[in-house]
Write a structure and sequence with these properties.
four-stranded mixed sheet; 2,3-Dihydroxybiphenyl 1,2-Dioxygenase, domain 1; alpha+beta; Signal recognition particle alu RNA binding heterodimer, srp9/1; 2 domains
């Protein structure tokens, strides 16, 4: 089985570059928007001539098994997506993703030995040009309960990669994240 994710992106070139670096490979398909293709060719044809009306790129990733499509939608980005994740088998694999992403020039944020979504986890995060956040994570163990600070990761008040969230009641600081 292979998961398919289709993301709306505001800049196809920036997003394709980000995901090329994140996954360590170029897209298998890359079609600029019709307007971009016409501009490059110096034409303004009323037909698409085989060129996508809006930009499109597709990645066929072997590890992890993923079919990722990028649909250029102009300035509209974000949507109702919370975040995306790659669940791996070990903490070592989380660190491998971190190293690979950093070597590709991506900024990472780490959450190691955190309790979130009723499990103890290690994770590292990256954010694409449209603000979509990806985590590579491993579940170290399941837990039966969480305190208020730990539960903040799942309450819809997600504050972003590596940002600190302070809970007054518990008086503690925790790094926000999820799942």
């Amino acid at each position: 089985m292979k998961v398919h994710i289709s993301l709306n992106v505001s800049d196809l070139h920036k997003s394709a570059d980000f995901y090329s670096r994140m996954f360590g490979q170029e897209p298998m398909k890359f079609f600029p928007s019709k307007a971009e293709a016409d501009s490059a060719a110096g034409t303004d044809s009323p037909t698409t001539n085989g060129v996508a009306k809006t930009g499109y790129a597709k990645f066929d990733i072997a590890d992890p098994p993923l079919n990722l499509a990028l649909n250029e939608t102009g300035k509209r980005a974000g949507g109702s997506l919370s975040h995306l994740g790659l669940q791996v088998e070990t903490s070592e694999k989380v660190h491998e993703y971190k190293k690979r992403w950093e070597e590709a020039g991506l900024t990472t944020a780490d959450e190691m030995d955190v309790t979130c979504c009723y499990s103890k986890q290690d994770k590292t995060w990256v954010r694409d040009p449209d603000g979509n956040e990806w985590e590579a994570f491993v579940v170290l163990e399941n837990v039966e309960s969480m305190n208020e600070a730990e539960a903040a990761c799942c309450d819809g008040d997600f504050v972003g990669i590596g940002e600190k969230k302070v809970t007054e009641e518990a008086g503690s600081t925790t790094t926000a994240g999820c799942c």
